[in-house]
Amino acid sequence: MTKIDRIETSILEIPTIRGHVLSMATMRTQVIVLVSVRFSDGSVGIGEGTTIGGLSYCLESPESIQSAIETYIAPVLEGRDADDVNGAIYLMDKAVRGNAIAKAAVEIALWDGLGKRLDVSVATLFGGAVHKQLPVAWTLASGNSETDIEEAHQMLESRRHNIFKLKIGKHPVRDDVEHVRRIKEAVGDKASVRVDVNQAWTLTEARWGLAGLQDAGCELVEQPISVKDLSGMTELTQGYEIAVMADEVLNGPEDAFAVAAARAADVFAVKVAQSGGLKRANEVIGIGQSAGIGLYGGTMLESGLSTAAALQLFATVNTLEWGTELFGPLLLVDEILATPVGYSDFCVEVPTGAGLGVALDQDKVAYYRRDRSRSVSA
Ligand code: MUC
Ligand code: MG
């Protein structure tokens, strides 16, 4: 029996190509928690747990992800059967409440290891890929309308993206709607425009906002109000034509069920990290499908590693009505994969090969490492 020998983590810091301005934080660096799971047969699985803006986006930080893994998850998994990924998931859930991103990072590494040992892709472990590539959105979030318009034109000309998500919620609603209107007018029918408010609006602001946004030709609004106001989300979903997407409120299948039961969204932003791993994200997908809720492949702005993990899962889903936003590696100044995830013709390519289908560039990993404690990566 192959066993889990040792679980190791390290934190990397990689600058972003420009300031990424969200309603709750401006990102200039992305902080990535890398996980290597070493198995007794010499094989290694790799995973990544990444959040956004320190502790400003959700309840986990890079430091809490690392400490949850090293202090509480590694001791219960080390020595166990490497192939028993479901057993590991149940044990992690028993030993650790919450901490979805930490669990996801370890679970991804376990699936990667299993896929490599069986010489099949992670998509195959989830029933098989039905897509080789998926549509991919780009987020315009420079904080300046002119710069965003220029960036949108570049993306259209290079055929990299024709779906744009605009980050709003930092400015008065009227100004934000005007910003969206200008960008939609500039791209016309060549691109679709969506927005993400990251919970910044009150319900009253959201009523004005949604009316203005749909008038401006914006097709979707993501998490306009607090995760705590599910009845407000229901009102907005039912009151306007513009699609309402649930993001931060979705932390696994139980939340997906609650949102679906309350008809509190038209679309799920399915995030592997936020869901607690690939298996739980797949359950979120199943709940969305059975409730008639549209699906969107979301990101925590991860590097190519967890982007590849998400691609392995989303490639198995017949219909992602709203495509994906798996552009994380493109927001970073540098790659940590030996062979980067491919982007062309408005799509992202699903990596092929065993496990996640990607390998780390160890020189880059060493270069971007925050410190060298307890860390020897795959
Ligand atoms: C979020 O809230 O969706 C995803 C894309 C992006 O630009 O930010 C993230 C976070
Ligand atoms: Mg979002």
UniProtKB/TrEMBL annotation:
Cofactor: Mn(2+)
InterPro entries: Chloromuconate_cycloisomerase, Enolase-like_C_sf, Enolase-like_N, Enolase_C-like, Mandel_Rmase/mucon_lact_enz_CS, Mandelate_racemase_C, Mandelate_racemase_N_dom
GO biological process: amino acid catabolic process; peptide metabolic process
SUPFAM superfamilies: Enolase C-terminal domain-like, Enolase N-terminal domain-like
Keyword list, A-Z: Aromatic hydrocarbons catabolism, Isomerase, Manganese, Metal-binding
Superkingdom per UniProt: Bacteria
SMART domains the UniProt entry points to: MR_MLE (SM00922)
Residue ranges constituting the Mandelate racemase/muconate lactonizing enzyme C-terminal domain according to the UniProt record: 145-243
GO MF entry, a single one: manganese ion binding
Signal peptide segment: none
Isomerase is among the record's keywords: yes
Pathway the protein acts in: Aromatic compound metabolism
Enzyme active site: 167 (proton acceptor), 325 (proton donor)
Pfam families registered for this protein in UniProt: MR_MLE_C (PF13378), MR_MLE_N (PF02746)
Family: Belongs to the mandelate racemase/muconate lactonizing enzyme family.
Protein name: Muconate cycloisomerase
Organism: Donghicola tyrosinivorans
Lineage: Bacteria, Pseudomonadati, Pseudomonadota, Alphaproteobacteria, Rhodobacterales
